UniProtKB/TrEMBL annotation:
It comes from Xiphorhynchus elegans (elegant woodcreeper). It holds the Pfam family RGS. Residues 87-203 form the RGS domain. InterPro entries: RGS, RGS_sf, RGS_subdom1/3, RGS_subdomain_2. It comes from the Eukaryota. PANTHER family: REGULATOR OF G PROTEIN SIGNALING, REGULATOR OF G-PROTEIN SIGNALING 18. This is RGS18 protein. Keywords: Signal transduction inhibitor. GO terms for biological process: negative regulation of signal transduction.
Length: 235
């Protein structure tokens, strides 16, 4: 492996915000027993991590853990809300849009997708090479490995490639997995968000009502949307 100094010649030490997020995520994982969890255990694990995501220390980061309350979007003007409907990229690029979409995914019990996407964005902000391995391990154990507490839906090939690359991580280690999850949200959750009552109320300039929790009618898979859109460039 190349010398980290050569890979990142002008990079500085990580911010305390990044360290706070990965410290909390890593501690959540270490609390779990090493053996394979039962279905009940996996559910408890998800609930525990959800509670961690609501802790104040998570709210110090730019995005992750700051899912926000859709009620806060009441201050969003109809003109701003209209822009969210122009593209999924536009929605995620605006703080209020990201918060509103995250809250919507929580009503569908699929918030792990946006949390993984945000974690990847934060990972790519790493400023030194030695930060990458512990951060990559945390993301992998939280979102990708089998029976992970917030496992996202990835095809076999993408999961295998990511599993191999995580041992010698680069800033691009999670790009394929992040792109896959992005497309799933864009093709599945995003259209439903645009049809949801809270979003439609924003377009009309009304304060959004408390969303009703509901479960997804079925679990969409990567194969449902293969070929739907070529890989995007988030930058």
């Amino acid at each position: 492996m190349e010398n980290p100094v050569l890979l990142f010649p002008q990079l500085n030490i990580s911010s305390s915000k990044d360290k706070s997020y990965y410290k909390v995520m890593k501690s959540a994982i270490k609390e779990e027993p090493p053996h394979k969890a039962s279905k009940a255990g996996a559910k408890q694990k998800r609930n525990r991590l959800s509670l961690l995501l609501q802790k104040p220390e998570f709210h110090e980061s730019d995005h992750l853990g700051k899912a926000g309350n859709l009620a806060k979007a009441a201050s969003v003007s109809p003109e701003e809300a209209v822009k969210w409907g122009e593209s999924f990229d536009k929605l995620l690029s605006e703080k209020a849009g990201l918060d509103a979409f995250t809250k919507f995914l929580k009503t569908e019990f699929s918030e792990e997708n946006i949390e993984f996407w945000i974690a990847c964005e934060e990972y790519k902000k790493s400023k030194t090479a030695h930060e990458l391995l512990p951060k990559a391990k945390t993301i992998f154990e939280t979102f990708i490995q089998k029976d992970a507490p917030k496992e996202v839906n990835l095809d076999f090939h993408t999961k295998e490639v990511t599993s191999q690359n995580v041992h010698q991580p680069l800033l691009t280690t999670f790009d394929a997995a992040q792109n896959t999850v992005y497309r799933l949200m864009e093709q599945d959750s995003y259209p439903r968000f645009l049809r949801s009552d809270p979003y439609l109320n924003l377009l009309k300039g009304r304060s959004p009502a408390r969303p009703t929790l509901r479960r997804r009618s079925r679990s969409f898979t990567v194969n449902d949307f293969q070929g739907a859109r070529p890989d995007f460039n988030i930058w």
